[in-house]
Amino acid sequence: MGTELTAPERDRPLLEVRGLSVVFASGTQAVREVDLTMGRGEALAVVGRSGSGKSVTAASLIGLLPGAAEVRGSVRFDGQELLGLSDRELSRIRGDRIGTVFQDPLAALNPVMTVGRQIAEAVRVHRRVHRAAAHERAVRLLDRVGIPDAARRSRGFPHEFSGGMRQRAAIAMALANDPELLIADEPTSALDMTVQAQILDLLDEVRRDSGCALLLITHDLGVVARSCDRLAVMRDGVLTEEGEVVPLFSGRRPVGGHLGELLAATRRMTESAAAQGPAAPEAEPQTEQEGPYVLRVEGLRRDYRAARASRLLGRGAPVRAVDGVSLALREGEAVALLGESGCGKTTTLNEILRLRPPEAGRIEVLGHDTARLSAAARREVRHDVGVVFQDPAASLDPRMRVAEIVAEPLAVQGVRAPERAARAAQSLRLVGLPPEVAGVRPTRLSGGQRQRVAIARALSTRPRLVLLDEPVSALDVALRADVMDLLDGLRASLGLSYVLVSHDIDVVRRSADRVAVLYLGRVVESGRTRDVLERPRHPYTRALIDASPTLDPVRERSRERIVLRGDPVGPAGTDEGCAFRHRCPLLPSLDAAVRVLCDGVRPGLAQVGPDGEGHGQLVACHADMQKRRVAFHS
């Protein structure tokens, strides 16, 4: 990090921002008179809802805004004024003394260059080193950020990396020249909880080892509680509050204003629907047992085969995306599929949505076996099934007006125009949108409004079963709470049944009656949500829960976690052993006989204990079964 600093240099703030304002060519003032100060080695979070000006502030510090944007004020880095420097002068600082990690690593990485070459280029831009030495540095950096088999992976392209590995590669590039300040713009917002935990651990380790400061842009207050010293709150481009994380989050200081709203929204997401509503928890088992089944899945399997060879994955190896999944859903119930990306959640949902004969197993939707449906019967059943996709911006046609989008499923059914208009207006009222929204295009709406439109479209056909694929993962915490409140209320008032796909523990805890935890296409644990999440028996379930941050900074920084390393990996096609054994933290401590079972015998789901017919907690784990046998015989 350069030469030894003198005492005055150590005492001088690393970053001083005074009166920062940003005005775009359209006349929109995105940032207004922002003042910030950062010390060396400090972690400062800038938090706020989407559109609050967080990312614009970060980009303006290092000259990454469009040329037409006007930036006023002062930005001093280690005593040097950055505003007014030419792009060539700023480029000597960017990537060298200031590293940047962007929100979307796939967009930030060059798709036609290998990852190792991109990192090596970042080194050579600022250091006079030979190409071979730069590549060696790139491999060491990839290894440092936890990329397995870094030398081989350095020859891969970004699309051959998982989301978590791409973000690690982006961090490696940002660290290429040992920066004094690391700016991370929502570095974990699109990642699973386990990968988020890995990235946060990595950032903490980088700060500890190198002493660099961290400016973290985020809307996730759990991330702030876990990793940051101070926070600054933005709203509508204005810095409204600032202070130390521990006193603010632990209740030592009264919290109000916008920060109080964000904290309240985050706590709403961690509460179960039962805790928020009047229904007593004791009534839950009776509610589950009453009513007919609207969905039954038994032994579902789905294989995929790569059409082309991959240098990293091999030639056309079959991948079993779903491997014997079974689940059941009664009328008025919500069942969640929980797990990391690549565990088979969305594939399971798509197999249900197709309403066609499955590759193996059986799917029964609303009493109809999908393998026996004619084309006409399939169309009729589809009228009773709604779906809400993950990204409303991608699932809504930007050329259509909202009323047309909501009425589109009705047009497909042949409903006449006057009735379509009336039912579309009714659906928009159901989701809490004003009538004037009907005439605008989705690009004019906020993220939360767009997701409400997507929900209104799903409800326009008055379905009995609604499939929800990560319905709030693209939204900030306040919008997530609002949308989940809406979905919970609609389920209660309309008697809907939900299949909820999510990797978010809080979403599942607050909104699902029962949960099935998936790993590499297999159900490893299932049962009532409160049982599985409060008393997890499978080590994978425990790791998912441990990876979910809380708002208690003292607990977050002191508790021991089961932290999973790497991404879900396993042999392609059929595998008779435990799918989780390659990452299982318990495996080294197990008896030799149990490890043999883990390697060669697929564990079946076994009931943990009697809890009423159909409501027992099930777990597929040799270690758990062995533990129960020992307890029984002793």
What would you note in describing this structure?
The model is unreliable at 273-289 and 630-634 (pLDDT under 50). 39% of the residues lie in helices and 22% in strands. The strands form 5 sheets. Strands 18-19-20-15-21-22-24-23 form an 8-stranded mixed sheet, with helices on both faces. It has a 6-stranded mixed sheet with strand order 6-7-8-3-9-10, with helices on both faces. The chain has a 4-stranded antiparallel sheet with strand order 2-1-4-5. Strand 12 and strand 13 form a beta hairpin. The chain is of the alpha/beta class. Helix 6 packs across helix 8 (163-174) and helix 18 packs across helix 19.
Quickly list its features.
globular; 39% helix; 634 residues; 24 strands; alpha/beta; 27 helices; eight-stranded mixed sheet; six-stranded mixed sheet; disordered C terminus
Portion in beta strands: 15-25%
CA-based gyration radius: 26 Å
The helix count comes to: 27
Q: Could you estimate the helical fraction of the residues in percent?
A: 25-40%
Strand line-up of the largest beta sheet: 18-19-20-15-21-22-24-23
N-to-C CA distance: 59 Å
Q: What structural class should be given to the helix and strand makeup?
A: alpha/beta
Q: What is the residue-mean pLDDT, rounded to a whole number?
A: 86
What is the secondary structure topology, with strand pairs?
Layout: H1 7-11, E1 15-23, E2 29-38, E3 43-47, H2 54-61, E4 70-77, E5 80-81, H3 87-91, E6 98-101, H4 105-108, H5 115-126, H6 131-144, H7 150-153, H8 163-174, E7 181-185, H9 193-210, E8 213-218, H10 221-227, E9 230-235, E10 238-244, H11 245-249, H12 257-270, H13 273-276, H14 284-289, E11 293-305, E12 309-310, E13 314-315, E14 318-330, E15 334-338, H15 345-354, E16 360-365, E17 368-369, H16 375-382, E18 385-388, H17 392-395, H18 402-413, H19 417-430, H20 447-459, E19 465-469, H21 477-494, E20 497-502, H22 505-511, E21 514-519, E22 522-528, H23 529-534, H24 539-547, H25 553-558, H26 592-600, E23 606-607, E24 618-619, H27 622-633
Parallel strand pairs: 3-8, 3-9, 6-7, 7-8, 15-20, 15-21, 18-19, 19-20
Antiparallel strand pairs: 1-2, 1-4, 4-5, 9-10, 11-14, 11-16, 12-13, 16-17, 21-22, 22-24, 23-24
